[in-house]
Amino acid sequence: MAAILDEISEPWPATGPPEKATEAEHVATPMIEAIEVTKSFGDVAALDGVNVSVPEGSIHGLLGHNGAGKTTLVNIFSTLLEPTAGTARIRGLDVTAEPQKVRRCIGLTGQFASVDEQLSGRDNLVLIARLLGASKRQARTRVDELLELFDLSDAAGRPVSQYSGGMRRRLDIAASLVGSPQVIFLDEPTTGLDPTSRLGVWEIVKRLAKDGVSVLLTTQYLEEADRLCDRITLLSKGRVIAEGTPGELKADVGQRMVTVTLPTQTEVPGAVKALEDSGIRAIPQESGTTISVPVTASADLAAIVRTLNEARTEITELGFSEPTLDDVYLRLTREPTGKSVPA
Amino acid sequence: MTVIEAEADRRTGPAGRGQPSEQWGTSGLISQTAALTGRSIRPYLQTGVLVVTFVEPLVMLLMFAGVLKVLGDAPGMPTDMAYIDNLAPAIMIITAVAAGAQAGNGLINDLRNDVITRFHTLPINRFSVLLARSFADGTRALYQLIAVAVLAALFFGFAPPGGIPGVVGSILMSLLVGWSMSWIFIAMAAVLRNGDVLRMITTLMTFPLLFASNAFVPPESMPTWLRVIAQANPISYANDATRSMVAGNITLMELLATLVACLALVCVCAPIAKRSFRVM
């Protein structure tokens, strides 16, 4: 019995905010950090030497297909799984060595709503506040605040089983914020939500980061990573295949394109010739009336228009396309077509 | 623009600097267990579940008191007690043990629910989740035990020599036995983590445990092999203890033996349950 009772929680939290660090130190200690983290389930390596570093107040995206290892990494950070090798730290605290301290600074919103269906929304939040040591009054104050913030005040008394998907997700995120954690993990926070609810969740995430919370979110949606994340780690089969800002990742793959649409298909060869004669590479699209032109500077755009004007070619539409994260994602995660023999 | 977005513009966020939780106190095993027990009991308070909770002991009383009344004259049956005075304490034990066996299923259901995953990411003592589970099922057992006593007194003439103190003592003792036994099932659930297997084992265990005992007929009337089992069955000893309790003649030895046996069971099973309890 003694072994059971000695695990009684230490006071929550020990004392006030983290010891005041100088600016330099502050920058030096990442809020979320994985160093060569590996996790094997039997023979299967779910994670293979993954490195991630998230500074304070930033939104970091883990992007990848199902089975890429995103959830496994989140589970390691949130003390649910122990890494097979490597180190995972939250605010400098090792998740394996000091899980209870780590739990004091994190909030997890898992892939599936972790709220109690049979309790009301309010009771779900009150339960967590009470577990974290809030008095009845403190719990009520905090819960009312969260309910209002997440637009759940009206539904607060209803059992969660009657909530819509979006409401459930909002309650779920609210539940992970009860203890005001400095680090939040959101595992596919918008999967299965309608567009309006998705926008709502995005706003929540942005606001969290603005308040200084460090957010690690997993997603399969490129648009989501692009719109929300300061940096993105691309995972495929447990390995990091790319890391950077959305802009950097896009710049990696490729160039911006100008697409020129002509009135008829018969004008395409002439227009291509005119462009190539002035030293501009033009790629006629296989079908239709469109020509793609890779560009690097905006002056190129003027040159295209001038050349076509001089060739007396009418332009019906002129478009400018940035490379999308889709391009990055597809290029990097594409299966090699041939059989490759490992060196 | 949703309310959330509008709110975003003028309010400080839900987390951030002025952290409200920093003024919060300490939560220990006791307060955590109390909060979690409340949560686990909640499902038992739904009308439908409550009806079943109270119908169960009624059916058991009707069945056994009615069908087995003829056995009141069976050889070896104490002649100085009405059959109901002999049966009701045994039904109390059966009721408490059956409710305790449910704790395993309760834990499996919990494991399937992602709320437990969240609990594992909170800075709480994880043992509180298991304690809460056992107390919730213990509470349900308490409702049923009171129902057994009241129904037996109202409809079957249950008025044992030990009077109300004896009946209350018998309820408390059944509660202790059922709660202690619930740790067997909680430990099995934590180790097996598989509801189907657990249910099979639970049925396999509870049937012989409850019926190959002295609950309904005296072991003296059983074939030898069954009598040996029934006499060794711990449930028989529990039945004896509650019977002595309602008869008002329980000895200190009997009381202590029951307490020690229950405590020993918990001391073996609870650490196993605690060690094996994880969400993934």
Automatic annotation (TrEMBL), chain B:
Principal subcellular localization: membrane
Topology within the bilayer: Multi-pass membrane protein
Family to which the UniProt record says this protein belongs: Belongs to the ABC-2 integral membrane protein family.
Keywords, alphabetical: Antibiotic resistance, Cell membrane, Membrane, Transmembrane, Transmembrane helix, Transport
GO cellular component assignments: ATP-binding cassette (ABC) transporter complex
Residues covered by the ABC transmembrane type-2 domain: 48-280
Protein's name in the database: Transport permease protein
A GO molecular function held by the record: ABC-type transporter activity
Region spans: Disordered: 1-25
GO aspect biological process, one term: response to antibiotic
Alphabetical list of Pfam families matching this protein: ABC2_membrane (PF01061)
Transmembrane parts of this sequence: 48-67, 87-108, 141-159, 171-192, 197-217, 255-273
Record localization: Cell membrane; Membrane
